[in-house]
Design a protein that fits this description.
Blueprint lengths: L2 H7 L5 E4 L4 E3 L8 E6 L1 E7 L5 E8 L3 E2 L2 H5 L7 E4 L3 E6 L1 H9 L3 H12 L8
Length: 125
C-alpha cells in the first residue's frame, strides 16, 4: 500500500497506538477489526502442538493484517499479532470488512482463497 493511500485513509479510519510487546489479537479469538500498519513492526505467531509460538510473518509499515480470515471464510483468528516495537495502525472496522466481502466478486474471492491457502505462512483454513 502506498503512502498516499494511507494518508487518504487516515481521514476516514480511526487510529491506535500499540506499545512494544502488546498483543493486538490472539489466535482463536473471533474475527474482529482489521489493521493497516502505519508505523512500526508487528509479528504474527501461530501456536504449535507443543505450546510454543512459531513466528510466521513480520508485518511492516503500510501493510494490511488481520483481514485475510474474512476471505478464507474462517470465523476465528489464525494467528496471534504482537507489536515488535511501538507502532501505530489504522483500524478497518469489522462491519466494513463484512460489507466489502459481501460485494467481493466470487471469482476474485476464490483466487484469494487459493493463493492464501497455498501460502505456507497461512496454515489451513
Amino acid at each position: 500500500m502506498d503512502l498516499n493511500a494511507v494518508e487518504q485513509l487516515k481521514n476516514v479510519l480511526s487510529s491506535i497506538t500499540i506499545e512494544k510487546d502488546q498483543i493486538i489479537y490472539e489466535e482463536g479469538e473471533p474475527l474482529g477489526d482489521g489493521y493497516i500498519l502505519s508505523l512500526g513492526k508487528v509479528q504474527l505467531f501461530k501456536n504449535t502442538s507443543d505450546g510454543r509460538l512459531a513466528e510466521k510473518q513480520t508485518i511492516s509499515s503500510m501493510q494490511v493484517f488481520g483481514v485475510w480470515n474474512y476471505i478464507l471464510g474462517n470465523n476465528v483468528r489464525l494467528f496471534t499479532a504482537k507489536a515488535l516495537e511501538k507502532s501505530s495502525a489504522l483500524i478497518i472496522p469489522k462491519a466494513t470488512l463484512d460489507k466489502k466481502l459481501l460485494t467481493l466478486d466470487p471469482f476474485l474471492r476464490l483466487l484469494f482463497r487459493q493463493a492464501l491457502t497455498h501460502n505456507e505462512n497461512f496454515g489451513s483454513p
